[in-house]
Amino acid sequence: RVRRVLEYPCAVPGVDAPLIDVPVRPAWDSRTSAEDLEKAEQDAFRGWLEGIYRRHPRERLNHFEHNVEVWRQVWRALERSDVAVLVLDARCPLFHFPRALHGHITAGMGMDAVVLLNKCDLVPPAAVAAWEAYFGQMLGDGVSVVPFTVPKSGSGRVEQPSVPALLEAIKECTVRRSGRPPCKAAEWFPGTGEACPGGSGGGEV
């Protein structure tokens, strides 16, 4: 049983910064037709790709998503969300951490994000604690890092003991909706009996 994990520098300042950013959806409103929005998205995405290959040699680039339909799903999911949960494999979380996407969500969109370390039952507890401390230090105070496991009980049923901790982390996030003052996500959860200040009634995150 592993009780202690040796420290090892896993990030090098100035080297591990993302080479490329994420594509941003063009501005649109209720007057924008579906055809105009689709064309604007295609043009913006094409320009994003061309800019990447113009600035960086191909041999310096890792694999990244070239399908605009995938990015459309990301754009629409984020536009409809109040809080983002970034799921990282605890066996190698830095490999799965989308640093540019996290920056876009938090700095670009002003949305809170929770970091979820998945499959923590497959790594030593000392490693989980080390990753919690690392991401807490890297992302700063106020960012929740939640270890997550889905163990099976003796009866074969899948237990989910980590769900309450995840829900509590989400509830502590701040919801920012147009036309309403910021408030804790807990006030938007069904069954709380509360409404977000300035709102006209309950809602859901």
From TrEMBL:
Example GO molecular function: GTPase activity
Keywords from the named record: GTP-binding, Nucleotide-binding
Keyword Nucleotide-binding: yes
InterPro entries, sorted: GNL1-like, P-loop_NTPase
Protein name per Swiss-Prot or TrEMBL: G domain-containing protein
SUPFAM superfamilies: P-loop containing nucleoside triphosphate hydrolases
Organism: Hemiselmis tepida
Gene3D superfamilies in UniProt: P-loop containing nucleotide triphosphate hydrolases (3.40.50.300)
